[in-house]
Amino acid sequence: MTERNIVAGSTAAARAAGLTKVYGSGETRVVALAGVDAEFGRGRLTAIMGPSGSGKSTLMHCVAGLDRPTDGRVWLGGTDITGLPDDELTALRRDRVGFVFQAFNLLPTLTALENITLPFELAGRRPDRRAVERVVDAVGLGTRLGHRPGELSGGQQQRVACARALVTMPDVVFADEPTGALDSESSAALLTFLRRSVDELGQTVVMVTHDPTAAAYADRVLFLSDGLLVDEMDAPTSDGVLDRIRTLEKRIRTLEKGVSR
């Protein structure tokens, strides 16, 4: 990393300033993000919500370094990642970021434990035994570590994926609809695990979700609409989140009626 990439005194785990993302051009031009400023505090679970097409996954992908913004800047801790070369960005994602997706993305030929410790192997490092034990204890899969993904339930596979994302204690774990493929019981178990990773392990988690129940596990919820950050809520409850979504949807319908006249 060069000196220009370091921002002194940064306290956020990740942040974005004036983030814009445009796909296509001319008649096919789509503005996914239209100048978003967002900050994600260390040791907190932040949920990102919004209707389909609001830009929530695009925001997460840009902040996580999976996609490059059209304009604006992104910092991971004190590192400005906006203009990093591809090789540096790849190394940064490997060493400092964890990912959990709706698709579990486990390697079918590896056991649960081997999938969990895979990030160490990819980085050419020996697994940190204490970190592995701590995460395995938190995920509650001690008796299933020798099983391959095909021998695990969907909820168990997703918890393995979460453990893999957490085992290196990255700066931030990004979770994109992590409960989307799970039943209610498995979803509750996974969300409890993510909550514990914040409260007990000091992890920072950013989660995209459409589910008010999932958002209620967060410390803070950001609401997006048409590529803009339009609202936020601290200490959310599922009923409070649902009410806020209904209010935002009503506001959007009112604006759309005004434009159509």
Write the layout of secondary structure elements.
Elements: E1 12-23, E2 30-41, E3 45-49, H1 56-63, E4 71-76, E5 79-80, H2 86-96, E6 97-101, H3 112-116, H4 118-122, H5 129-139, H6 154-166, E7 172-176, H7 184-199, E8 205-208, H8 212-215, E9 220-225, E10 228-234, H9 238-260
Parallel strand pairs: 3-8, 3-9, 6-7, 7-8
Antiparallel strand pairs: 1-2, 1-4, 4-5, 9-10
Helix pairs in contact: 5-6, 6-7
Distance between the termini: 53 Å
Provide the residue-averaged pLDDT.
89
Helix content: 25-40%
For this structure, what is the CATH homologous superfamily?
P-loop containing nucleotide triphosphate hydrolases
- CATH architecture descriptor name: 3-Layer(aba) Sandwich
Strand order of the largest sheet: 6-7-8-3-9-10
The radius of gyration over CA amounts to 19 Å
For the record, the count of structural domains works out to 1
Beta content comes to: 15-25%
CATH class descriptor name: Alpha Beta
**What's the overall geometry?**
globular
Structural overview:
- This protein has 261 residues and is an alpha/beta fold.
- Helices cover 37% and strands 25% of the residues.
- Strands 6-7-8-3-9-10 form a six-stranded mixed beta sheet, sandwiched between helices.
- Helix 5 (129-139) runs antiparallel to helix 6 and helix 6 (154-166) runs parallel beside helix 7.
- The longest helix has 23 residues, at 238-260.
- The radius of gyration is 19 Å and the shape is globular.
- Residues 1-9 have low confidence and may be disordered.
